[in-house]
Amino acid sequence: MLLVICGLPATDFASVEAYPLSLEQREHLKTYIPRTFLKLDSQRQVHIVALGDSVTWMYTRDDNNGNWLLSYLGNFSTHLAREFFYPGGVRALNPEDGKPAKLKSHMGKEIFIENLAIPGRCALDALQRVSTDAFLNSPDLVVIDFGINDSVRGHSLDSYRRALQRSVDACKAAQADVIILAPSIIRAGSGPMRWGLTRPYATVAKEVANQNGVLFVDLGKSLAPLGGGIPAGVQPEAALLTMSDRLGRIFEFDPMPDPEETLHPNEEAHAVMGRALFKAVIDPAPDAEIYDLSAKAVVVDNETVKVTATLRNLGEKPRKGYLGALMMGQVLTPANPYQDFDLGPGKSKDFELEYKRPATPLAPGGHVAFDVADPNLRLSYFVVDEERSRLFDVVTRLAPVSIEWTEQRFKNLKDKVRFEWRFVNGSSDETSGRYRIGMGDKAVSGWVPFKLPALGAKKFEATFPFAPPKGAARYKSAVFVEVEVGGKTITFPRELEAIRDVALGERTALSNYMDYGSVNQLPASGSADLPDGKGGVVMRVDADQNFLYFAFDFADVGFGPVPNTPSLIADIAIDARPVVEVGSFGFVDKIRINCPPTDGPIAVDRPQFAAFGDGAGNNVVIPSGGITAELKTITTGERRLELRVPVAYLIRYDGKVGDPNSVLGVNASFSFSSIDDKGQPGFQPEGRYVHSAPISGPGQTLYMRDPRGLGRLRLVNGQPDTWSAHLY
Fold first, then answer.
1. Which option is the CATH number for 501-727: 2.60.40, 1.25.40, 1.10.260, 3.40.50?
2. Please, which residues bridge with residue 177 across strands?
3. pTM for this one?
4. Tens-place pLDDT, residues 302-316
5. Within a 13 Å sphere around the CA of 549, how many CA atoms are in the beta-carbon half?
């Protein structure tokens, strides 16, 4: 009987974890983790830092919750300790409360792991750690693993790519080795098997790793074999769903499985991922692949994309099995996902697959757009035979043409806005056609001819009048490019969100979240000037050389006591990076205030690292007590929340009060608690008011910690005539 350890045969385990290292293994280690290998080889102290989400943190639904030593990071480090003879094993620095620092109390040299992962975080959140505390202990190796939350929330691949690149840059600047991991697979979203949500992010992670010459390890692919093999002759749908059900056992926890768990793998799955990570680090020779999968994609119409996927048998014996097409993120769902194959040695088979796009009202005939800055299709498939299941990704261009928006952020807008994009030819032949671009319901350009070289790209631009409704504080407008090529009409829709810059001393009405996107007026004074006479929240900001002063007036909004729940949660975001960086890609957190229903001073939560923008430096801690808040009742009988932020806390900011070119990024979000129809306390969307709404998802806006979604505050008095905007 063949012994299996961590999902792999014991013979495979022994072949990798066998000292001394071969020459090829040594060169592989020197190439990808040179600093770490130098210390491992001489048995000096090694320090590993992990950046990631709840999977890296080891969220489980059993007693192992938060025990980093049992996570894939702990398993990987344990394998390293065995390989390089660290008799003390692995030690977790600052483990979670109640969790051990070591699994066994062995004495001797140790490998240290520092897990800086935070459940619920996204790739952009890595910028917080790499600009503050990630390098405090001078780590030898940094492991980066994000993508699950990005995929669930619908973050753009462009944002994900930028965050990974900035993180790699920071690691290299700190002279730390770095490994980029693809996120583990999750069972979420739409589609028959629901396994494809994270896969586009996995392909981007691989591209970033390859472009930077760092090691890439695909945790999702490492779990795919747990779906097992299926014998030939089974109905394809039954075969693939059986495989999917088996694979779903990675989410089962004792004593009773939770059917709601679809994201977090169990301890056994973590062991498989840790083993795969160790094997990729130590072994330069990946397992020989017996299949090759390629694909070509053509737009049929605004709803449908046709894909020809070609599977080739690279082995020396016949193969029978099944191909299962997965959803492409939140954008494409396969209409005929279950296929079978019978391939002789060296033979191939074409599968004609149809994918559908969900509709959106962004433009006439428009549908959910592909990523704002990525013109590629990123398709994924399970290939299952009688031996095992495998996961394949295919990155391909879209024929006849796709679009990449090269300009997505706009500032100092007055009377016009210029859009910039590239058309990308997805075919091997020269392509010609015509296009028109539209903004809103009426502003549509004339038809413009274009020609693209084979597999080439060309940049285009168009300028439109920028004329928000008079007195508006913010508004949204559809933007679309319509292309006629090869007898087809293709629409590429997006949306522009514009926010009027505000000045010191100016009163600005926030939007009710349920109405966000509709025109919102700027009241000149008093609550009676709120939009349509409704109640709501009005913001005013003042400043001097020492403080920023925020005042929020509440008119006719619920502010009563709710059992065991704050009456109001206020989140204030400030982008206080240098003026030239304000509003650009990066990280900004929030100041959170939990308000009781009664007047008086309110304790303010200490802001997180890099709360006012990434790049503040290692371990810059904002002191407690310096940011003050108070709730009061003013003479009109309305309630007012006042917040005072010391300018000294805006460590990187170089603007000055009174300088018209000095701007800060700002956002304010207020959630009022209430009792729902079932008598439960909570926060409902209709009780939320926002200055801007950086909440991601299909057809929505940016991640709440992305400063590109914030409005802009000019540090002068007087009403500005400028706007900022972003395309999404």
1. 2.60.40
2. 141
3. 0.93
4. 889 999 999 999 999
5. 11
